[in-house]
Amino acid sequence: MITFEGVSKRYPDGTVAVDHLDLEIPAGRITVLVGPSGCGKTTTLRMINRMVDATDGTITVDGRNVRDVDPPTLRRGIGYVIQQAGLFPHRTIVDNIATVPLLLGRNKKEARTHALELMERVGLDAALAKRYPVQLSGGQQQRVGVARALAADPPILLMDEPFSAVDPVVRTGLQDEFLRLQDEVEKTIVFVTHDIDEAVKLGHRIAVFQVGGKLAQYASPDELLAAPANAFVRDFLGGDKGIRRLRFTQELEAEDDASGQTADTVADKAADR
Amino acid sequence: MSPLAAGDDGEPLIRWEWISNNLTDDIAEALREHLILSFTPVLLGFLVSLPLGLACARWKRLYQPTLAITSILYALPAIALFVILIAFTGLTYTTVVVPLTLYTLSVLVPGVVDGLAAVPDHVRQAATAMGFGPLRRLLQVELPIALPVVMAGLRVATVSNISLVSVGAIMGLGGLGQLFTTGLQRDFPTPIVVGVVLVILLALLSDLILLGIQRAFTPWERAGGTRRRKTADQAALPGGGAA
Ligand SMILES: Nc1ncnc2c1ncn2[C@@H]1O[C@H](COP(=O)(O)OP(=O)(O)O)[C@@H](O)[C@H]1O
Ligand SMILES: [Mg+2]
């Protein structure tokens, strides 16, 4: 579990990016931070792994104040995925994925073998292992980014608009697989997006931020759609029309999931024989 | 006996006997000197540029003044620097090495700074987020990515040094340029031709070797290219991979 208690961030230039934030992020679930650009989502996320240090308040991870952990050590235990993937252009895909295990001093061969397994898990052809990031599409790079974040098996994953830079068709595919993967790994995930559709689709809980770094509402997707806390949230959801549309897509997704699962089970059984 | 064009006085452009007679002593010695005089400044310049460039990349306000100083030095004609230095260091290697090291700095310091600036911010951030400390990040991420730009600077500095060392010979400072002065003094073209050919060959060969080193150390630079997105996008679609 990750908790924020009265956390604020004021940048040196005086910008208040996050304003007295209280938030409890449950373990093993996807919590989405959503809101318009500049509302402090990235800042909030980065305070967890101390890429940004809070100016006020306390952040704890599993009961431990993040301030008490030296940043590189803290970060090696928290996966991080960003929009442009941030892959190392000078390392092959397999070495990119093995980055953190190698930083942790694990055996090189084992780290590579494990990286290959991870490639398969995130839906990447093992033939891509020896390629360099420039040789991959945006969608494939994002998968590598996810595999890299998972490589040291950290309990926590921070994801900052990881699917925003790819085209909508690829994005839908990545989201679906991401949900499936999360079913297996059950990480504590903090997921940042500005896209309310993505938030409703992925989030177990959703924190809606408004400009000025204020938390407007923290609720499950159902609660959010049923009872927006204020005019800002209602607007952000797209008014009544937007809410009806989101509910409708939510139901469709649920149906898809159900039928998808049956199809999978059938396929699994067929494979067993 | 030479098939090449003859001068007014019937002196052939190349006298092969002269070459074979002088190959092992004069020519070889001039070549050896030329190599030392061109590469010592590259090496020294590199050793100074790396920390200087890193400092300029880290403390941005250092960069402009540093750049101004190195550019001014670069603008000074080599011959003027040689003349000034002869007063202090005489006809020694130092007289050539010092100015050329300064020229090397003016190419390599921007090379290091630009190379580091070429590291994408998201890559740097990702490295930090994964738990790289500053030194490890520099050595394992930033410098390798900066390498192609730094190597480009190194190649320019090397070739330009090889050509500038010839100038030093006018003042009697050694190197292949001595063959030019010998030829001019004696009104005898063979050493001049030999000198020019060797300088050109030396420059070409050095550049090729450095290019080879660069390529060997930056295999990712040649990856991608035209086949970049060939199969990539299909495979990324749901259903393309394990989806
Ligand atoms: N390093 C920084 N220095 C000053 N202001 C910053 C910095 N980073 C972000 N900000 C400001 O803080 C606010 C929140 O930024 P951010 O957390 O990136 O928002 P979001 O991710 O929601 O778009 C914005 O007004 C942004 O301009
Ligand atoms: Mg952001």
- CATH architectural category of the largest domain in chain A: 3-Layer(aba) Sandwich
Structural class of chain A: alpha/beta
Order of helices and strands of chain A: EEEHEEHEHHHHEHEHEEHHH
List the ligand species.
adenosine-5'-diphosphate, magnesium ion
Strand order of the largest sheet of chain A: 6-7-8-3-9-10
Oligomer: heterodimer
Which runs of chain B of at least 5 residues are low in confidence (pLDDT < 50)?
Answer: 226-243
User: Which CATH top level class of the largest domain in chain A fits?
Assistant: Alpha Beta
Q: Characterize the largest beta sheet of chain B: strand count, sense, and whether it forms a barrel.
A: none
Broad CATH class of chain B:
Mainly Alpha
Strand runs of chain A, count = 10
Instruction: Describe the sheet with the most strands of chain A.
Output: 6 strands, mixed
Rg of chain B, rounded, reads 24 Å
What can you tell me about this protein's structure?
The complex is a heterodimer of chains A (273) and B (243). Chain A has 273 residues and is an alpha/beta fold. Chain A has 2 domains: 153 residues, P-loop containing nucleotide triphosphate hydrolases (Rossmann fold); 66 residues. Helices cover 45% and strands 22% of the residues of chain A. Chain A contains 11 helices and 10 strands. Chain A is globular, with a radius of gyration of 19 Å. Chain B is an all-alpha fold and 243 residues long. Chain B has one domain: Orthogonal Bundle (MetI-like fold). In chain B, 78% of the residues lie in helices and 0% in strands. Chain B has 10 helices and no strands. In chain B, helix 1 packs parallel to helix 8 and helix 2 runs antiparallel to helix 4. Chain B is elongated, with a radius of gyration of 24 Å. The chains are: A alpha/beta (273), B mainly alpha (243). The interface between A and B is large, with 49 and 35 residues.
